[in-house]
């Protein structure tokens, strides 16, 4: 019985990880409130989730804000570009829905496909930013190539995101508080396998 409540017991370690996921989710939500800072928040969230998955998390609050500051400029720049592109695609889809011409269906299909490809690339962008160093151009290229080459894993990652958000929206709203952490941690285990396949190591000068 004493072993169960030991600090080294599997139960205690599980409770610690659950607590860390909740704390990181809350930190992500709070630091993403200005919207423009969401890119830096995503990078910091994934960075700490990689550490959590490797059992090297240390002080997660300090680690979160350290990574948030370190990647603020780059991650915010990337995030703002994503917002612009995402907004344009959403606007184009809305216009197509309102159009009453034969070509509307074709345009809707085109922009829907473009939106899916865009979301697939974004799925890889911020984990890559958090995992290794490199130019924005190179990381965007890697995100695109990985999303295509690992198409089945990409679909799985996007499926996880949609399901977790749907649970919070349609089943129980309080779940949305921990959704960012759960999604990121579940993604991280998949990303670890993908990055290992391409011989990528965390913190490398170039990736």
Biggest sheet, in brief?
none
Could you give the count of β-strands? 0
User: How much beta, percentage-wise?
Assistant: under 5%
Percent helix among the residues? over 70%
How would you describe this protein?
There is one protein chain. The protein is mainly alpha-helical. It contains 8 helices and no strands. It has helices at 10-32, 38-53, 60-70, 72-98, 104-131, 136-149, 151-171, 179-197. Helix 2 packs across helix 3, helix 2 crosses helix 5 (104-131) and helix 2 (38-53) crosses helix 8. The mean pLDDT is 89.
List keywords for this structure.
207 residues, mainly alpha
Can you describe this structure in just a few lines?
The chain has 207 residues and is mainly α. Helices cover 77% and strands 0% of the residues.
Write the layout of secondary structure elements.
Layout: H1 10-32, H2 38-53, H3 60-70, H4 72-98, H5 104-131, H6 136-149, H7 151-171, H8 179-197
Helix pairs in contact: 1-2, 1-8, 2-3, 2-4, 2-5, 2-8, 4-5, 5-6, 7-8
């Amino acid at each position: 019985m004493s072993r169960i409540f030991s600090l080294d017991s599997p139960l205690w370690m599980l409770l610690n990880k659950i607590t860390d996921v909740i704390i990181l989710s809350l930190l992500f939500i709070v630091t993403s409130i200005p919207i423009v800072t969401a890119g830096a928040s995503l990078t910091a969230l994934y960075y700490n989730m990689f550490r959590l998955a490797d059992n090297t998390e240390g002080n997660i609050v300090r680690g979160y804000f350290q990574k948030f500051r370190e990647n603020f400029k780059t991650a915010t720049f990337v995030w703002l570009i994503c917002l612009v592109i995402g907004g344009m695609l959403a606007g184009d889809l809305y216009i197509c829905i309102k159009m009453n011409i034969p070509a509307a269906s074709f345009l809707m299909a085109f922009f829907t496909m473009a939106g899916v490809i865009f979301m697939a690339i974004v799925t890889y962008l911020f984990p890559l930013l958090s995992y290794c160093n490199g130019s924005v151009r190179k990381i965007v290229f890697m995100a695109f190539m990985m999303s295509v080459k690992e198409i089945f894993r990409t679909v799985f990652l996007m499926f996880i995101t949609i399901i977790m958000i749907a649970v919070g929206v349609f089943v129980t709203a309080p779940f949305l508080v921990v959704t960012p952490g759960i999604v990121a941690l579940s993604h991280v285990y998949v990303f670890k396998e993908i990055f290992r396949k391409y011989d990528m190591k965390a913190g490398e000068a170039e990736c």
